[in-house]
Description:
The complex is a heterodimer. Chain A is α+β, with helices and mostly antiparallel strands. Helices cover 26% and strands 34% of the residues of chain A. Chain A folds into 2 domains: 4-229, P-loop containing nucleotide triphosphate hydrolases (Rossmann fold), CATH 3.40.50; 238-348, CATH 2.40.50.140. The two termini of chain B are 34 Å apart. Chain B: The chain crosses the membrane at residues 20-40, 75-101, 113-135, 141-161, 202-224, 244-265.
Amino acid sequence: MASxxxxxxxxxYGSLKVVHGIDLEIADGEFIVLVGPxxxxxxxxxxxxxxxxxxxxxxxxxxxxxxxxEAPKDRGIAMVFQNYALYPHxxxxxxxxxxxxxAHRTPADIHERVDRAxxxxxxEAYLKRYPxxxxxxxxxxxxxxRALVRDPKVFLFDEPLxxxxxxxxxxxxxxxxxLQQRLKTTTVYVTHDQVEAMTMADRIVVMNAGRxxxxxxPLELYDRPANRFVGGFIGSPAMNMLEGAFEKTETGTSFxxxxxxxxxxxxxxxxGVVPGAGAFGIRPEDLTLAPGSxxxxxxxxxxxxxxxxMLRCVSDGEALTVVLRERPGVxxxxxxxxxxxxxAGVWFDAAGRNCAVLKN
Amino acid sequence: xxxxxxxxxxTLKAALSQTLLTLVAVVMIFPFFWMITTALKPAAEVFSxxxxxxxxxxxxxxxxxxxxxLPFSRFIVNGLVVSGIGTAIVLISSSLAAFAFSRLxxxxxxxxxxxxxxxxxxxxxxxxxxxxxxxxELGWINSYAGLIMPWAFTAFGTFLLRQFFMTLPRELExxxxxxxxxxxxxxxxxxxxxxxxxxxxxxxxxFIGYWNSFLWPLxxxxxxNMATVPLGLNMFLGQTGNQWNLLMAAATISxxxxxxxxxxxxxxxxxxIALSGLGGR
Lengths: 360, 281
C-alpha cells in the first residue's frame, strides 16, 4: 500500500502532445477513477503509471519514491486489462502463478498465495481450467487474481468491465469495490462509463483532451461541476443546458433563455456573473411539471422505467430531459410547462465555467 | 414452394461441388496409386501395352531389391539428418526474426523487413551458383552443413510467423512485462507456445522442402555417402538401364517420412493454414 503522486506529467508522440501536465495526489488506500471521453488521455496516463509508456515530462512517485525509470515489475503495481490478457495456454492456476514464478518465489509460497486469491475470488473450482473454458466474468476474476497474488502497492484497472454484459458489469463493479475496501490497496481505475465512476470512486478525476477538468468526490462533481464539460459528462441522463444570456437589473441578476424564459440568479451566485452569454444547467430530476411557469416544451417520447418516468421534450429546438418520480398524465405530443426546483441548477459563463465556483 | 426450389438449388450445388472435389482428389491421388502399383509389377510389365493397372503378380520383393540395390538406408539417414536439423534451425531462426520484426521496435525495422521479404522473389536457380561458390570457400562441399545452411534462414518462415505473432494481442506481452518477464521470457513462454499451429505448418513445409530437394544436393554432393533420398532415386536411372519398378518402390518408401509428419501435425497444419491466411479463403 502506498500513495501515488503525479507531478506535471506530460506525454508527447513526436510533436503531438496528448497529455498536458497532469498533477494529482492520490492518498494511500484511495479508489480513484479516471473518467473521460475516448481519446482524453486517461488510458495513456494509466499506462505511464504502469511503466508501459515512457513519461515525456514530469514525475510519477509511488510510496514517495520516483519510479519514472523503474521497470513495470519493480514499481509495485498490478494491472487488469480490458480484454483480461490472460495467457491462453496456461491454466487459471498458472496464470496467477506466473509473476510469482518469475520472481523466484518458493513453490509453497506460490501455492499459498494462489489459493488465497482463488478463495477470495471464488475461483477454487476453476484452477485447473484454461481461460477459454471460462465465462467472461470468471476471466475477469482470474485477471484480478493475477493482480492480487502479487500483493501490489497500487492496483491499475484499464476499463476492466467494458467487455461484460450489463448485468455482470453491475455485479463485478460491486465485487471490485468490495475487494478494494477489504484490501485497502490504492487503486486507479480507468473507465469511460460515468455511472461506473460515480458508483465506485472515492474521488473522480474527469479528463478531457489530455487535461484534468475537475477532481472531486462523486457528489461534489454532480452537484458542483467546475464547468460545462463536467456538468454535461457526469450524470445520466445528462444535464440539460439552456443557452441564453445573463442580465443585471436593479432588482437583481437574471438569466433569459433562448426560449424567452426568465430565471432569477440567486444572490450567492450573482457575484460571479458577468452580463452576456451564458448557460443554465439543470439536472433532469430538478425539472418539474408546473403550469404557468414559463418554460414551455413539447413532449416527444415518454420512457417509463417503473420507479421513474423520463420525458424527452423539445423546447424551441433544444432537447430537454425530465425525470419524474410520479407518473405524469401526459402523452407524446402534449405541450407542457416546466419549472426548475428552487435552488437547483448550475450557471455557466460564456467560457463554460461555473459562476458559483468563480465567485468563491 | 419457394423454399423447395431453394432447397433443390442447394442440393444441386452441393452435388456439383462434391463431384468436382472427388474428381480433383482422384487426379491428385492417381500418380501415387500408379507409383505403388508400378512398384509391385515385374520389370517386364512396367510399359506393357495396353497399360495394366495391376501387374500379373504382386512382387513385394521389389521393395527389398530396391533397398539393397543402393545404400538406401544411408540416403534415408542423410535425409532425416538434413531435414530434421534444417527444420529445427529454420524454426528457431524464423521465430526469432519474426519476433524482432513484429514485437521489437528498432529504427528501419519495416524497411529491412521489406528487403528481406523481397528475397522471396529471387528464384533458387539464380542463387545456386553463388551459393555453391560460397560453400566451396567454406569447405562445406559434401557435408551436412553444405546441405542444410544455405536454406536455413528463410524469408518465407519469417513472414509466416511474423503475421501470426501480429495477431496476438499486445496486452498479453504487456501483462507479461508487468508480471516481470523480459524479452526472452515473453518470446519463450508467451509467444512461442501460442504460435504452435504456425510453427507446425512451417515445420511440415520446411521438412518436406528439405526432404524433396533435388537441385541443391545434386550440385553440392558428389560423394554417394552424403546423398539424400532424391539423389538416390535418381541413381536408379541410367546406371544399368532404368529400373522403373525398383525406382517406384524406392519412391514409395521415400514418401513415408513426409506422410507420417503430415499425419502427426495435421491438427496444427489445418489450423496454421487457416490462421495465417495461407489458405485461399
